[in-house]
Amino acid sequence: MGLALIAWWWLPSVGVAPNRIVSGTPFTASQVAGWPMAMLAGLPLLLTVWGAMRMDHQRLAWLLGLVVLCLVGWPLWLLLAAVQLVDPQLPQARLAIGSGMWLALFLLLLALIELRTRMQLSAWRSWALFLLPVLVLAACIPAGLDRLALWQEFVGRRQDFFTAIGVHLLLVIATVALSLIVGVATALMVRRVPQLQRAVIATLNFLQTIPSLALFGLLLGPLAWLSNRYDWLDALGVSGIGWAPALLALVAYSLLPIVRNTLVALDGVDEGVIESARGMGMSRRQVFLQVRLPLAVPVILEGIRITTVQAIGLTAVAALIGAGGLGRFVFQGLGQAAMDLVLLGALPIVIMAVAADALLAGVTRKLQPELQPEIQTEIQPQPELKTQSQTQLKPERQPESGE
């Protein structure tokens, strides 16, 4: 929070440009509305720094309120800057978010995550805290924040933007699904033939070391040859560029977390639980499907979470070989030196990765405490059976002397 305060006072808050081509003029917070207004706007940051010096349980709620107030004030300050600095007579003029605002936003989100963890807030309260600044930002756009450069880039490419999101999500879902099928099958094969484990893990580790662009390039020639040789592949759209090399490369990168976590999960089940299941008369297949696999699900989900977040990021690079997706905006913006166009592609990728990580982490946490008692209850002998077996195994009473 101290760094956020420094970024607020000394780094550029916003930038104003007369059009998309000309580079903007940076303005600090004091230049936007004067020192008194900048000091007043930075007061919640200062109070948060002071309150965090002696943090205890009673102050956590107070600090959380200050951080949320700062996040809500972030779009309101942008609205004030748009009204103060953007000339309404210039229809092409735009307002860019400065480095000070971006850094302050990043640090405020870190503080919000830290406070949420310490206070152990429920999932719906956490999402409400994150969505509140977004709702305020959406309300500020029709009030004058439509001059924001990022918003103008979105308006000019609205149809392409939603199409890119759909392509990006489709590639990620296909990658995770294929990786899960192939990865789990590979892990089961390795468990059956332990001699293959070293070679399989070494191969998957080697694939991770290949740069993504190099792997995309290595797939161009073979896929182009296959599509020319087999008409049915060409009918499916398989070629040296496009979705086919992107999907193969993404699956190759995603196999290692799935295979490794599946092996660790299946081998990490307590042998005492397995022996109890066998003692109940379960077959080998029943032990795997009803005991070992359910207990291994949380760890397997961790591998799926890593794979999903990794695939969301790597799919952006696949835009270089014509696979589409949000990466197209990133590389177009880099080529045109338009950072707002870069952000138009990068910010949804970050949001998708964070949302997928939080969703799968929540599912994992919910499964961990519930699966263990359920499995133990299923494999625990019934009291009636135990009593009956003890009665059957009890030796007959020997007659006492005199009977």
Automatic annotation (TrEMBL):
One of its GO terms (biological process) is transmembrane transport. Residues 374-403 are annotated as: Disordered. Residues 165-360 form the ABC transmembrane type-1 domain. Pfam families: BPD_transp_1 (PF00528). The chain crosses the membrane at residues 32-53, 60-83, 95-115, 127-145, 165-190, 202-226, 232-256, 311-331, 337-360. Residues 394-403 have a biased composition (Basic and acidic residues). It is found in: Cell membrane. Keywords: Membrane, Transmembrane, Transmembrane helix, Transport. InterPro entries: ABC_transp_perm/SBD, MetI-like, MetI-like_sf. SUPFAM superfamilies: MetI-like. Residues 374-385 have a biased composition (Low complexity). GO terms for cellular component: plasma membrane. Signal peptide: none annotated. Belongs to the binding-protein-dependent transport system permease family. This is ABC transmembrane type-1 domain-containing protein.
